[in-house]
Design a protein that fits this description.
Layout lengths: L35 E7 L4 H4 L9 E10 L2 E6 L10 H14 L40
Antiparallel strand pairs: 1-2, 2-3
Length: 141
């Protein structure tokens, strides 16, 4: 993989993700050829596999990559289910990617990912009840 030596991957070890595998490359969908793919994800369960549509929806797809936009660095990942963030490797990937995009130095082992406080996510709304009386707050300058 072209981006395997990227500083974004410093200290990032393989981890199990709860995110869905988004199909960004395969069939009619083609990822921009300028991207440098960093990580691949593999679907563990796919209705496309049962339906014989792996040519259009392959079980393996990029889940993190870099690109540029008008000379600016861009880091992107399709990962990010609330449970993904429980793993320090996911947090390190995001922190390293943000630092890389900002052209900041990434430590040799990647950034520390200790959670300060409590992080107890729900399962992305499945079976959860919505909290009433809550509205977003907007801050305007």
């Amino acid at each position: 993989m072209e981006g395997a030596n990227s500083p974004i991957l410093r200290g990032v070890k393989p981890f199990n993700a709860y995110s869905w595998l988004y199909h960004v490359d395969g069939g009619e969908w083609k990822i921009n050829p300028k991207t440098k793919q960093l990580l691949l994800g593999r679907s563990l369960r796919s209705s496309h596999e049962e339906g014989g549509r792996l040519d259009k929806f392959p079980l393996t797809n990029p889940v993190a990559w870099t690109n540029d936009y008008k000379g600016a660095r861009v880091f992107f990942t399709t990962l990010g289910h609330p449970y993904d963030w429980l793993d320090g490797n996911m947090r390190r990937l995001a922190l390293n990617g943000i630092a890389w995009a900002l052209e900041k130095e990434i430590p040799p082992g990647g950034f520390e990912t200790e959670v300060v406080g409590e992080y107890a996510p729900n399962n992305s709304g499945f079976g959860q009840k919505f909290k009433t009386g809550k509205t977003p707050e907007f801050f305007l300058e």
